[in-house]
Task: inverse folding
């Protein structure tokens, strides 16, 4: 089983613009997908965003892009820092 992601939604850069182009000390990237009746919400990784330089900095060694597509997002404050959670849409593709 392979979970395909990132083919639906809007780019992260547009989400950040819609929310006022803030700096985010923490962006949590997640994937929502289902298998039959079961629903899953899986952590993918995390990064931060500096609105002065327009640079995403990975905090886990992976790479992230402002062009990555997300279908859902939620902004929140944690320890007086502005954070963002974004969700990709995941679809199961079987290994045949």
Result:
């Amino acid at each position: 089983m392979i979970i395909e992601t990132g083919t639906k939604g809007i780019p992260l850069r547009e989400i950040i613009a819609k929310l006022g182009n803030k700096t985010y000390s923490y962006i949590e990237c997640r994937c929502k997908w289902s298998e039959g009746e079961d629903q899953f919400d899986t952590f993918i990784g995390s990064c931060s965003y500096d609105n002065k330089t327009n640079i995403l900095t990975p905090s886990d060694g992976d790479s992230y892009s402002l062009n990555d597509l997300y279908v859902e997002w939620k902004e929140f404050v944690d320890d007086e820092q502005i954070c963002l959670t974004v969700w990709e849409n995941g679809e199961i593709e079987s290994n045949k």
